[in-house]
Amino acid sequence: MTANELRKKYLTFFEAHQHAVVPSAAMVPENDPSTLFTGSGMQPMVPYLLGEKHPKGTRITDSQKCFRSQDIEEVGDNRHTTFFEMLGNWSLGDYFKKEQLRWFFTFLTQEVGLKPEKLFVTVFSGNESLGIGRDDESVAIWKELFKEVGIEATVGEDSEKNGLQDDRIFFFDEKKNWWSRAGVPSNMPAGEPGGPDSEVFYDFGAEQKLHEMSEFKNMKCHVNCDCGRFLEIGNSVFMQYQKQADGSFKELSQKNVDFGGGFERILAVMTDSQDMFTTALFTPLISKIEEISGKKYSEKSDVTRSFRVIADHVRAATLLAADGVFPSNKEQGYFSRRLLRRAIRFGKMIGIEQPFLAELVTVISAVYAQPYPEVAKKSAAITQAFQTEEKKFQKALEKGLRELDKIKNIDGEVAFKLYETYGFPFELTQEIAVERGDVVSEEDFTQAKKVHADASRKASGEKFKGGLADHSEKTTQYHTATHLLHAALRKILGTHVQQKGSNITHERLRFDFSHTDALSQDEKQQVEDQVNTWISADLPVTVKTMGKKAALKSGAIAFFVEKYPNEVTVYTIGDDDHSGWISKEFCGGPHVSSTGEIGPVEIFKEQSASAGVRRVYLRSKA
User: Fold this and answer.
1) What region, left, alpha or beta, does residue 538 occupy, with left being phi > 0 and alpha being psi -120 to 50 degrees?
2) Domain with 555 in it: what CATH number?
């Protein structure tokens, strides 16, 4: 089974169980300031998990493109990647544990063909302080499912101490079997949904233990051990709770299922391979890197690690670019740049001195031609951007070398400063230091790096907390107000006005649009008055799902047409039946049901965003 066949088989399986198949959302969340990237399959689904009605119904399935920047340093082993696809299915207040666990077990054993005896599962052990008991219901379901295939599934507790024994189902606490975007319950901000989960692991067998001569040699193995014997391949989250302001948990108005299956991981275990980089998603890349470098993937461990880093990082940067993220020194672009520069650095470690990124983009475009044709369509622009980045990094290396010439003593802090400021590789600093007779402490470098990472993580955490609590309230109001603002600008200034970007927080909305001149005070007042007039009219906000061509023909506006799938969601403000609407746009939501819910607003700032693009800020008067 090829990668494309596996993806299609999963979607077809759940479509046969009355799930609507939806396309992957972009890896850059739309109008969500709380996070830089879509890092999980459930992220685009949060409004619907909290109770908003999904236009496609209560059963949804997809394969979601994801990017986790926090995993960059982990790449190099057999299972970590920064970009991955998450196979997902959701029940939005529809079915629950009984159906979900059976369907996933059936998919793995009958559709994919995995042997049931290779599968082990974990469930939530409960937490009295949260008022949430242990998940005996899931245990009973799993016992029945294994019994049907001739396996007696006994339950093990404290397996980290006791090991596997002869058990197949294991209890773990919230550190392992609770899921939310923020992690364990204590880290969740108010308003964030979460719940206990049940995870499925694939057993490669005791003889396949990766680190037999390492720290794990004399330790009792269990499914959550890092020795390499087990690989998690799917997680059924029973998303039924929401964190409250006082720290307690309240049941949501609907019980949800949020399933995430590792696409690349399932593809690997289908061939009983512990190494995800030996799957068809990576082998063309690995072969091309072998051709460019003159080295072999399995030559030795440090070479293998370099191959994995290069393959993962260039693949992730390419998929990000197809979603509009190109290398820069800000926000998402910073991570694209970091990926490419790490790939170039690891390329140098295996002897690649010439530019090579463009050759890999061509391979990646071919691999994803069927599921994500936008990669091939944008390959020329992606290639040009990556080649420019290669040249910039070469200059950065030269700057770093000049800076080193000015420094008398090289230590860990200097090494980190060069790494952070110029992207100068630590290994190269270390080599130069040895030539000078200096000793560079890797511990000092790592410590300086950790201090910086902790500060960045803290800032990122504050950003994450800031956008979630009001996700279904104030930010939803601003989301609809964005459409009113857009319509008002086109009415007052002219239809040449086109949206160029937007950003929404719970405090204000920022809107970029094409227009050459600064708005006069009178123009700003006219726009503000028009928006408030429409708000006061309490106009209905309706949603329809239709074909892209039909939507455009109906008058719907979309200035980023290429990013939308063939079937789109259109939000209309005003009377759609009698052509009395004042705004009709492609959009992913969420929105209020009528404009009166927004309340009076005001324009408090207007400025230039770039050549030919103006930026206006709007906030609530309340």
Assistant:
1) left
2) 3.30.980.10
DSSP state of 557: B
Which whole number is the average pLDDT over 53-59?
92
How many other β-carbons are positioned within 10 Å of the β-carbon of residue 415?
A: 28
- Which range marks the domain in which residue 170 is found? 3-277
Q: Which residue has the tokens 């299915």?
A: 89
- Per-residue pLDDT at 177: 94
Question: Any bridge partners for residue 359, and if so which?
Answer: none
CB-based contact 250:53 (threshold 8 Å): no
CA 401 – CA 355 distance, rounded (Å): 20
Same structural domain for residues 197 and 287? no
Torsion, Cα 489 495 497 499, to 10 degrees, reads: 90
Q: Of all helices (H) and strands (E), which one includes residue 243? A: strand 241-243
d(Cα 615, Cα 198) in Å, to the nearest integer?
A: 46
Instruction: Could you list the beta-strand ranges (E) of 274-402.
Output: none
- Partners of 62 in beta bridges: 88
Last residue of some domain: 210, 243, 277?
277
User: What average pLDDT does the segment 127-137 reach?
Assistant: 91
Supply 426's token pair.
Answer: 């630590």
What pLDDT score does 213 carry?
47
Number of Cα atoms under 13 Å in the Cβ half of residue 203: 16
Quote the mean pLDDT of the chain. Answer: 87
Domain count, the chain: 4
